[in-house]
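Workshop exercise sheet. Pairs work together: one partner reads the sequence aloud, the other fills in the structure field after running the prediction. Swap roles for the next sheet.
Pair: D.N. / O.F.
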Amino acid sequence: MTDVGPDSTRAIVERDRRHFFHPYQVFDTYLVDEVLPIDRGAGVELVDTDGRSYIDAVGGMWCTNVGLGRDEMADAIAQQVRDLAYANPFVDMTNVPAGRLCEKLAELAPGDLNRVFLSSGGSTAIDVAYRTIQFYWYAKGQPERRHVLSRIDAYHGTTFAAVSIGGKPGDRVPGFDYIDDTIHHLSSPDHYHHGNGRTEQEFADDLVAEFEATIAELGADKVAAFFAEPIMGSGGVILPPADYLQRVRRICAEHEIVYVSDEVVTGFGRLGEWFASESVFGIVPDIITSAKGLTSGYLPLGATIISDRIYDVIAEEGHDRYFAVGYTYSGHPVSCAAALKNIEIIEREGLLEHVRDVGPYFMEQLRTLTDLPMVGEVRGSHLMACVVFVADRETKELYPEELDVGKLVANACEPKGLIVRPMVHLNVMSPPLVITRDEIDRVVATLRDAIVDVRADLDAR
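Structure field:
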């Protein structure tokens, strides 16, 4: 890549700064921070416009599960474009890839989750779940059940409904409106930061007690649903303590509260299973939302997988009802073809088994970083991990938020050939499922060097 001309790195960066309005753009620093322009990728590696390569330990955005640059994914997408690039998905029209994909998802999902609504991503999948639940309670003759329970630190997407259900403090910023009258956020299940001397079981007991108390306060006959990620993703890779989720699921069933398991991140292999709800946590939810690893990021696609119990109520004959929810790209044939090929690759190459093999090794190697003074905790499961940075390991005191220590470490990783995702005092990682042990060793060694460099710089200030 030359330093001059319309395709030079300098020109690409300047064009980006003038015209590309980025998600979560930080206006005060955007014109100051270096922009990293990516040109191509293969497997777990990215290459920038100057030819420098990086291990992408973030996996794009939790999504490049089968790895980048796969010819058979490109071929399947191209062939579907030639055969049928688009078809109207509304009411009584369908297409072959969409039907095949819905059948496959019903096969992979637990319990009686057999009905699939296709949209364009994780946020829309959550939005569909939210609206389905509203319609379900209307059809049940209980329209007063409108209250939704979620948790602080939860992330469920960026549509109006999804961001309102989410409880990440960093997403609820001044200047935007949220649904606050019927959506309620319970305590974060982050035992490391909020355990306050309680054992994990005691902490779980208190979370469950809070859940029950909130239902009692609102009235069980007014609560529609509970939304939960099996493991919180963008909130900081927070694992549920002890038997907390299983007990909450039983309480939901007791009160007929719809349990929504948001598997946008955990689905399609990140924890070594197609879905984590039942296989990892012993829960069969009423609705599962998914996206990201569904196509490994090759094309946008979301899926809301709904139980027969819910579908049969809203679809009951004789009421002249119709489901007034739809997207131009619902069941998009090219995206569905990509998802089918992606699932085929995961099955054929045994990637779930591979994750069950290398995932524990990834966590084991990352935990060696806890000998560094500023590493307070390493948490996660399989290929979903987080390093927590602290100013004082004994007190768990965090660095000042304005320091943005996670960004300092991520910035130090970049010139060393590693991309991690900073989140204030965290570094989050979710590498492609195809990562090898050697590549894991490179990730951990590089991250260690970067942390050591940042700590030395902070000590010298």
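Discussion prompt: The radius of gyration is 22 Å. What would you look at next?
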